[in-house]
Every structure is written in C-alpha cells, then in structure tokens.
Specification:
Lethal2_giant, single chain, 20 helices, alpha+beta, six-stranded mixed sheet
Length: about 1200
C-alpha cells in the first residue's frame, strides 16, 4: 500500500510538463552529404541556383553555402515511378522548379520556409504523350513540353493547363523539304533563341532540326543531318547565331542559324574513326581566344566504352578527358555574365559531385562548398567530437589547407539565395567559439574531418594511416601523367574521389578518439593497430616514428589465433633519420600493435595524462604515449576459450538437454491452451514486464571489451579524487583500475601532490612511470553487454566533459548502461541508487548513450516555484553552452512572452538510442522519461549503428550510404537552413471554374490548387512578404511524404489535463484503415478532449500548424465518411486554439480519404508565419 501511495506521488507536475515542452522536442533539421541515387540536375543562370532530383523522389535546391531547400515526391498509386525524377527544369529567375517523374507527372515546386512544396501537378496520359524534353520560356510564362510522339505542347504556368496551339509533327513535316521523308521521331531537345523569344529550335530524333516561328506557327528553316543520324540534343550560343548539334554516333557539328546548309565538318567525331558511343550532353564556349567544347560520352565503343568521361577540348590543342569512377548523370557549364566565356564545369555523378575551373587550361579541380561524398571510401565508423576548441580547429584547418593547395580558388558560381548573416550576441570573443567536428573512419584506413557546426558540412582534413603500413620498398603511387601513352588514346585524367575498393581490409578504421582541447588523435583499426597522432603548427621538430606492441595472451600457453595477420609498419619509417610521415601540421607519434591482431572494439583517450586505452575481443591495454611505454594489459578471455575466434570448445547445452527443454515448452504451451482462465489469473497477479532471456555465463563473446572510460572520481574515499580507468565487457563485468600518475601529470589536473614538494621534486628529477592496479570489480546479474559507462556530479554533468576538474562537485555517481537496463550507483560505495529496465518494459535494447545539455529561458517567478527541483537542474551559465553556433542556429524558443528578467535554465539529460531506432531522453539521476522519438527506421541498421550525439542535444546518422541526417532533441538548439529565395508572383490568378480538358489538370488537382491558392498565389498574402525570411517551422512539417520515410512527426501541442501523467512523445504506431474506422465508430457517441488528442496522436504524421489569419487544407473524397461525427470535434476540443483544431480535423479527414483511395497515407501541409505563444 505504501508503494502504491508513493508511486502516485511520483507523477510530474503541470509545471514540469510545461518545462519539458520548453526543453525537449524532436525534429529533423538538415541533411548533409551527397544525395542517394541522383537522377537529374538543373541550373538556373539567373537566380544562380542548382536543383538535384533523385530516384527516391527527393529534390534538393542549393544556392550559396547555407541556402538549402528540400522537397519530396509522394506516392499516389504506390508506384516507384512516381518518385523517380527524370527531368528538372527551372522557371528562370522565379525560384520555382519543374520536375518530371517516370510516371509522366509534371510537378511545380515552390520554396516555402526551408522546404520545397509541390503546389501544382499535371499528369500526362498515353504512350504518345510520354514527355521526352522540357524547355521553359525566358518570359517565365510557358513551358514547352516535347513528347516521344513528336508533338510539342504549350503549357501555361499561370493557369497550369495546356493551351493552343500544339506543334504537331504532321504540320512540321508539311513544311520540310521533300528530301526528308521519315517520321521524325521523338522530340530530343527544344531551345528558345536568346535573341528572338518568338522562335524555337526543335531537334527531332531522326536527324531533323527546325526553326519554328511561334507567331506565324510556321517553319522558318529546316536543318537535315546527312545520313539522318540519330540526334541527341542541341546547344545554342549566347547571341543566338549558331547552334551545336550532337548525335548518338559520337559526332557533333556547329550549324549557322541563318544557313540551312550543312557545315563542312558535319560528321566530326572527336574520338574517331572507330565507332563511338553517344554524346549525351554538350556545351560550347570560349576561353580567351580559344574555343572550348565540353561533352560527356563519345568514347570509342570497343576500347573505352566502359569509361565514364567528360571531355574538355580546346581549339588551342589543350585536351583533357576527365575519367570518373562512377556513372555521369549529367553536367552543366556556367558562363561569365551571359557571354560565351566559360567559367566552371559542374558534374553530377552517380556517387559524387565534382567541379572544375574552365578558365584555366589545366582544368584544375574546385573544392565545392557542399555535396561532398562522405562515402568516397566506404564508411566503417563515425565519431563526433563535440565542443572542439578554436585552437584545435585552426590546427585541423591548417593541415587541410596543405592538402588543398592544388585546388582552384575561383569564386563558386552557384551563389543564389538570401542568407541572413547575423552576428551572434553572446559570442564576443572569437577564441571562445566551439565547434562540432564529425570524424568518419573509412575502409581504406583514412579518417576524414568534417565541420558540422552549421548547415553546411565542410571537409577539413583527410588523415591517412595506410602510408604507415606495407613493405619497405613500397613507395607512394606515382602521379599519373595526363599525356596519353598512345596518340589514339583519349587524354584520360583520373578524376573524382570516389574509390570503393580497398587494397587491404585490415586497414579499415573501427574506432576513433579526438581530444577536443589538445588535438590528440587516436585511430584504432581492424588488425589491432592503434595509430597515435597530434595536430601541431609545425613549430616543433618531428620525432621519428615509433612502434610498440602489447600481447594480451602472453600468459595463455594454449591460445591459438586463427585470424588475419597484423599489419607491418614500414621499416624505413622507423629509422632515426627517416623523414616524418604525414602532412604538414600533423605529427604521427607512433603505432601501437595489440596482439592477437583482432579488431579494436573501443578506445578511450585522456590527453592530459598522456594515456590511451584500447579494447579488443581478448582484453584491454593501457598505453602511455608520452613516454611511448606500455602501462599494463589485462586478458578478459575465459580460460576455457583457447580458440581466439570466440567459439567454445565445449557447448553449453548438449543436444539431449536441448531436446528435453523443447518438449517441456510444448507441454507447457498445450496446458495453457486447455486452461485459458489460468493464464488470465497469472497475468492479472503480476505486473506487465517482458521476460528477458537469460544469458549464458560462459558465452564466447563475453570477453569482448565494449567500453572504456577515464575519470577522476572518488573511488578510494569520499575526500580525494583519484585517476581511474573503467572497463566493461560483453558479460557485464565492470572493472575499475586505479591509476598512479607521476607528479607532473597530477599537477596538470589541478590536484596538488599528496606527498608535498619533496615528492614533486623527486618525481621531476626521476620520472616515474604510470602504473595501474585493479581497485574494484562489479558483476551485473543479468550479464547483458555493457554499452556505456558514465560518471557524473550532483548537477548531472559528466566528469569527462568538464574542462576544469575543480568545478566538479561531489557527490559523484556512476551510470552503467547495459543493453537491457540503466543502473545508477553511488561512489565510492558503489551502492545501487536507481534502475531503469528498458528491455523488460519495452522490448528494445540500448545501442548508444550520451549526456547532453538542454537549456531554455524561464521567467524568474517561475523558477522561484522550484520547477527545477532536481539536483541535476541548474540556473548557472556554464561555459560549454557557448558551443552553440548561434550564427547557424535557429533559436526556436517558444517562450516568446518571456521578459527581460528571464534567466537561462540548464538541465542535463541522458540520451539513449535503442535498436528500434527510438531515442529516449531520461532525466538524471532520476531516470524519468522526458521524451520518446522514433528517429530512425527500425529496418535501417546502418543508420542506427552510425548515430552520434552532440553535447547540445543533437544527433547525426547515416540516412544512406552517402547522406547524413541531422536531428535535434532540443527546443532551443537546432541547426536549420536559414536561407531564402525571392519568389516571383504568378502573373494570373487561378481560374475559379477551370475547364476539364484531356490534357489539362484533373479535377483532383484543381481541388488542390483551390485549397492552397489562398496561401500560395495571392499577392496580398502576408506570408509573401516574408517569403525570403526563414520561417520558424519544422522542416518535416512542411515536407509532406518525407515524414513517412522515418515514420515520425510531432503534432500540435496539447494542453489537455489528461496528459499530465504522460511524457512528450513523437513516436507513431502502425495506422491502418481498420484502426481509423474503428476509432471513428468509437467516438460517435461520446467525444471529449481525450479522444480528440488520441486521434491526433494516432495520426501524428500529419503536418499541422497554426496560421495567424487563415488556414486551409486539401479535402478529398470527403463524402465517403461520416463527417458530422468528426466535425463535432471542433467545438468540444480544448487541445489547441480554434484555428489549429480546425486544421487538425480537416487533416485527419484528408488522410483517411487518401488511405482508403490509394492505400497510402498522404500528409497535408499547411503553412505558418508566426509561432504560438508560450505557455508561461
């Protein structure tokens, strides 16, 4: 009874519920890296914007660094062709872009906030109406649509309908010379003359090109290719006097627009005379006095047909053939000020994005500011160094600049959009700025440093470990000469960074550690190698490379290692007079080899003590890299396991025993089926808790060291902190090692020597080696693998995140997180304080933990009521809060009404990632759930295993093999795109009664247009005025179908009193048509705030926002449902404001309608221009 009363009093108060909303909220923010499976690219030379479409339906628009917009095609009839983007065409200068999908749908996109919204859709039906090419008018009002049937339709952008006249190929053939008697075939290219907007240049598939007059609807001139070679496309020069026509046989020729006669070199094949492949795209321009032709394809079919090339041929004899390792999707060339002077070549490949300087005859590479290929070599591990100091950051940047010395520094041409460059207020000193750096380990042994502080993922430096290993006579690979060996061979030049192949799988990086204050770098590999390096300014003389080894199984006589051999450090690098390895600004101290050469499973670094610890499947090692001497090692192998491969010589269960248990389970199941009442009684008498399968005590992989942690904490008594090393294994064995450091190291940690000045003097004259001894050992009963160990003070701050050890306030507590539960112990007594069983309650397993700081501004009178009553809550302004990059951070603080007397409230929380892709936020030390968010799809194993947390409540994970998704769990800390685009108005408004035509917009699309026109097209809409300003909205709330990809989005906040006992949750259950129908039937008789909120919670993937003046939604097939019952929700709902409630109800109806019609839930997007006021 006492437990029941105590349990009822543990529910969070209303103030705490409000504070949770101010501190914690889940949203997806930014995507970094290279889009997965790109399929189309387009460039707007007027707005200086670039758009990329993918096979998965994503559209991304990029301008100047920091200006990014995302859009996502949605499924209508569950066909993958509806997502595959085949063509992109800009409506030049307006900020709008057209996309053509493989299902023959034409969609117009417009930027709203940080998102691209599909405002109009036009479906084409019939095989003859299969769209083959697009051309947007320079007057921004018409798009000419060429089809495979050979006809060209005029598409009015203002009314979004087809208008007359249609350019039929029959009419064109009547005006073509009689020598051409073929069916011209599909429309391959349409170009409007830049000097005469009333004329079109049309290229047909079968060697016919005509100049068409739009005013007279007549052919002005016809151009016929000799032999009627298959055409591919056209390029018209800037002044509209000539065009270049390229073909499928690898030939191209420049024709004069004023003369229909064929040029002399009409059959010129640049890589002839052998049969060549098709030229897929061609641009032409000038570099000084030389003429430059840039084209893709055209390779000799038999000899080099498998090469993916873009060739740059100049008339002055400079020829370069850029040979890429992945397929060329498309490319474009930028010109200087609407002239024919070429500037930059931008190539979109299947696996990377490259740019080259065409103003230089050598065509040097340009380091693009975004769209970097994270997976140039396969990513094998991720590590996020949070709050890196300015000094270390500058050292990393300096080392990276040496690597980029050969890159061109021409100005980046894609610089459109508007970016608010606001100077942060709370960062007065540049030295106080802290950075977030992502380190990716790769299969080829390299570690890449990425600055992920802001919206743009900037590559900083590429650290290579493969140079250290190999044979003595293995020199660096010589640079390939750009001159061909054979005159007939194209002038190939290896281009691009994508190289998916590795020479040696043992080089793969498994674990990384970087000290954010000193710049010490530790890299652990697959073959037990640990590379120790340090970033410096190159001022100190580099010492020769050192190598050492530590054998974990030296005392196990019967041990036999059956795995791969260790890597051999190149002997010539170990000589005393050998030149230092690596780049300028990086000193590689040495290599530690752990034996047996099994993969490194965990690393821990304490740069102030000069110690690094590494763990493998066989044990752990502790190494002093200052003196380059081993400290100690400990083997964690079971004495019975002598195979080294983790396999047991004797099985835990015999076949007879296993068979006996199987029969017992069968009998037990049969008895429960015969007596169902017995099961019910048992379930009622016991609390609902999953049964966790017992683990064997002699599991073969139990010896694997899963985590290592250095900490200065209370382990011997409550008065003095001691340096310690904590280790934990797969079998829940936690060991504490007491470290004895020399006096200088002890002094470096702000703790005076215990024995006084005499001891310090003796230690200085006679350096004492670091030693370690086992102090305590903990064996958890459930024997689940330990995922993480953390020691935190009374405020909840981890000891290892403290820059000043004297700021750590006792008492300390120990958190041991296994795969199944969290447990908090007191120090130094190691008495259990608290426990949170995740697996038993929810069936999920812990994958990763991290401590993060959350903050918000609260009025002082609210703080006086003791909102933060927990000892882990504080109102201090700690230095680590300056880590936020305010310039690129959207401070989405909902406390809009807080006055000047508000104070900054801080709270530490524990972030937990589960194997189901959920992120759970727990308070410390109470371990009370604060937030539950379905962040990663549970099927996405790579995404879950790659997720990394920051100290500010954000996380990064691999969305695909080449993309990173950034998410935020904090209400006030979110890195979101802050750029904008000036969107021009459509000239004419939507027609109230559009005419139904076979080629016009369908009735469904008209409904969509009418429903959204009030917020999309009216010139007096207040949101238009602020279109260039960043809207304070969640990206996913405007993303439509993107939210369905990872299955989560937050609904409108509810003030229902029935939610006082609930945590904030963003997770979404599986919604079916039957479950929605059952819910609607259940709410027919009685409707209250609880059912309203439950409905909203079940359909939380819907994107709803509160608009200040009006809100609209797309209503489809409404008559199929019992509408009055749902409309009763409006007057009875207290969950949101009146407008917001209306939006939720309409969105629910629309979603149900779509689910019934198409079998796929479709989200409805509404727009917002103003945030809701705070609850305080």
């Amino acid at each position: 009874m006492l437990k029941f009363i105590r349990g009822k009093g543990q529910q969070p108060s209303a103030e705490r519920q409000r504070l949770q909303k101010e501190l914690f909220s889940y949203r997806k923010t930014v995507q970094h890296g290279f889009p997965h499976k790109p399929s189309a690219v387009a460039y707007d030379p007027i707005s200086k914007l670039m758009a990329i479409g993918t096979q998965t339906g994503a559209i991304k628009v990029f301008g100047q660094p920091g200006v990014e917009f995302y859009g996502q095609h949605t499924l209508i009839s569950n066909s993958a062709a509806e997502l595959n983007v085949q063509l992109l065409e800009w409506v030049y200068g307006t900020g709008r872009v057209l996309s053509l999908t493989a299902s023959n749908h034409l969609i117009l996109w417009e930027p709203v906030g940080a998102t691209l919204v599909a405002i109009k859709t036009l479906p084409f039906d019939g095989k003859l109406k299969k769209v083959s090419s697009l051309c947007c008018s320079l007057n921004k009002d018409i798009v000419w649509i060429g089809t495979e049937g050979g006809n060209i339709y005029q598409f009015d952008l203002n009314s979004f309908s087809i208008r007359e006249p249609v350019i039929y190929h029959d009419i064109v053939l009547e005006q073509v010379p009689p020598t051409y008697k073929l069916n011209p075939g599909a429309i391959e290219s349409i170009r409007q003359l830049p000097n005469a907007h009333n004329k079109l240049l049309i290229a047909y598939n079968r060697g016919l090109c005509v100049l068409w007059d739009l005013e007279t609807s007549a052919v002005i001139r016809a151009y016929i290719a000799p032999g009627h070679g298959q055409s591919v496309g056209l390029f018209v020069n800037a002044d509209g006097t000539q065009f270049t026509w390229y073909h499928a046989d690898g030939s191209y020729a420049s024709w004069s627009l004023t003369n229909a006669e064929a040029p002399k070199n009409v059959n010129y094949v640049p890589y002839g005379p052998d049969p060549c492949k098709s030229i897929n795209r061609l641009y032409k321009g000038n570099r000084g006095t030389a003429e430059v032709v840039i084209f893709s394809g055209g390779m000799p079919r038999s000899a080099y047909g498998d090469h993916n090339c873009v060739s740059v041929h100049a008339s002055d004899g400079n020829k370069v053939c850029l040979d890429f390792t992945s397929k060329v999707i498309d490319f474009f060339v930028t010109y200087q000020n609407n002239t024919d002077n070429v500037q930059v070549l931008v190539v979109l490949l299947e696996e990377e994005f490259c740019a080259y300087d065409l103003t230089d005859s050598k065509v040097p590479v340009i380091k693009a500011p975004y769209l970097h290929s994270v997976h140039a070599s396969a990513v094998t591990c991720n590590y996020l160094a949070s709050q890196v100091s300015q000094e270390v950051y500058n050292k990393i940047v300096h080392a990276g600049e040496e690597q980029d010395a050969d890159c061109s520094h021409i100005e980046w041409p894609i610089n459109g959009g508007i970016l608010d460059e606001e100077v942060p207020d709370d960062i007065d000193n540049e030295d106080a700025r802290l950075y977030e750096i992502l380190l990716t380990g790769h299969e080829d042994g390299s570690v890449k440093f990425w600055d992920c502080t802001g919206v743009v993922l900037k590559p900083l430096y590429n650290f290579k470990t493969a140079l250290l290993f190999g044979h003595e006579n293995q020199d660096d690979i010589p640079a390939e000469s750009s001159e061909p060996v054979d005159e007939s061979e194209p002038p190939f030049r290896k281009s691009g960074l994508f190289d998916p192949y590795s020479d040696d799988p043992r080089l793969a990086v498994k674990k990384i550690a970087l000290c954010p204050k000193t710049g010490r770098l530790i890299v652990g590999g697959t073959a037990g190698q640990i590379v120790i390096a340090n970033f410096d300014n190159g001022e100190n003389d580099s010492a020769p490379l050192k190598a050492s080894s530590m054998n974990l199984v030296s005392d196990r006589d019967g041990f036999v290692w059956k795995g791969h051999d260790q890597l051999t450090v190149r002997a010539n690098l170990l000589d005393s007079d050998a030149e230092p390895v690596g780049d300028v600004g990086v000193e590689i101290t040495g290599v530690l080899q752990v034996l047996p050469p099994a993969s490194i499973t965990c690393l821990a670094l304490e740069a102030n003590w000069g110690l690094v610890a590494g763990g493998t499947a066989h044990g752990l090692v502790l190494f002093d890299f200052n003196t380059f001497l081993p400290v100690f090692h400990r083997c964690t192998l079971n004495p019975n396991d002598l195979t080294g491969a983790g396999e047991q010589l004797s099985r835990r269960k015999s076949f007879k025993k296993s068979l006996r248990e199987s029969f017992r389970k069968l009998r037990k199941g049969r008895s429960t089926r015969n007596n169902p009442t017995q099961v019910a009684t048992t379930l009622e008498s016991r609390p609902i808790e999953r049964q966790v399968e017992a683990r064997s005590t002699d599991d073969g992989m139990g010896s694997m060291v899963r985590c290592l942690q250095f900490a200065k904490t209370f382990i011997t008594n409550v008065n003095i902190t001691s340096p310690t090393l904590w280790s934990a294994t797969n079998s829940s064995t936690v060991s504490v090692f007491l470290l004895h450091l020399p006096a200088p190291l002890t002094a470096a940690t702000n703790i005076p020597p215990v024995s006084g000045n005499a001891a310090a003097t003796t230690a200085a004259t006679q350096p004492r080696r670091v030693s370690a001894q086992l102090a305590k050992e903990i064996q958890l009963k459930h024997r689940a693998p330990v995922v993480g160990i953390a020691i935190f003070d009374q405020h909840g701050y981890p000891v290892d995140q403290q820059s000043n050890s004297s700021a750590v306030s006792p008492p300390h507590r120990l958190l041991i997180a296994s795969e199944e539960q969290f447990k908090v112990f007191s120090l130094p007594q190691l008495k259990p304080i608290n426990k949170y069983k995740l697996t038993a309650n929810e069936g999920a397993r812990v994958r990763r933990i991290h401590f993060a700081s959350f903050s918000c501004r609260l009025p002082s009178d609210l703080l006086a009521h003791g909102v933060g009553g927990s000892p882990s809550k504080s109102i201090s302004t700690r230095s680590q809060e300056n880590a936020q990059d305010v310039a690129n951070t959207s401070a989405n603080n909902t406390s809009g009404s807080v006055g000047a007397d508000a104070r900054l409230y801080h709270e530490m929380a524990l972030l937990c990632l589960t194997n189901m892709g959920d992120i759970v936020v727990l308070s410390v030390p109470e371990l009370k759930r604060q937030l539950n968010a379905a962040a990663v799809r549970r099927e996405d194993i790579n995404g879950i295993s790659s997720l990394c947390f920051t100290n500010g409540g954000e996380a990064l994970y691999m969305l695909s093999s080449s993309e990173l998704q950034r998410i935020s769990l904090s209400t006030t800390k979110a890195v979101t795109p802050q750029g904008g685009i000036e969107v021009e108005e459509l000239v004419n408004e939507e027609q109230d009664n559009p005419v139904d035509d076979a080629n016009s917009v369908t009735e469904e699309n008209h409904e969509h247009i009418d429903a959204t026109s009030s917020t999309s097209t009216h010139s007096n809409d207040p949101s238009r005025k602020d279109r260039t300003k960043p809207l304070e909205v969640d990206i996913d709330q405007l993303k439509g179908g993107v939210t369905l990809t990872n299955g989560v989005n937050s609904t409108t906040e509810s003030n229902s009193p029935n939610r006082a006992n609930e945590t904030i949750t963003s997770s979404v259950g599986d919604i079916t048509v039957d479950s929605v129908r059952d819910h609607l039937n259940a709410t027919t008789t009685t409707l209250c705030t609880t059912t309203t909120e439950e409905t909203v919670g079940r359909l939380s993937v819907l994107s709803t926002q509160t608009n200040q003046t009006l809100t609209s939604a797309n209503m489809k097939d409404v008559t199929d449902f019992n509408i009055p019952n749902l409309m009763d929700l409006a007057p009875l709902s207290n969950t949101t404001e009146t407008n917001s409630s209306s939006v939720v109800i309409k969105s629910i109806i629309t979603s149900i309608s779509h689910e019934k019609t198409n079998g796929e839930t479709e989200t409805v997007t509404t727009k917002t221009t103003q945030r809701e006021e705070s609850q305080f």
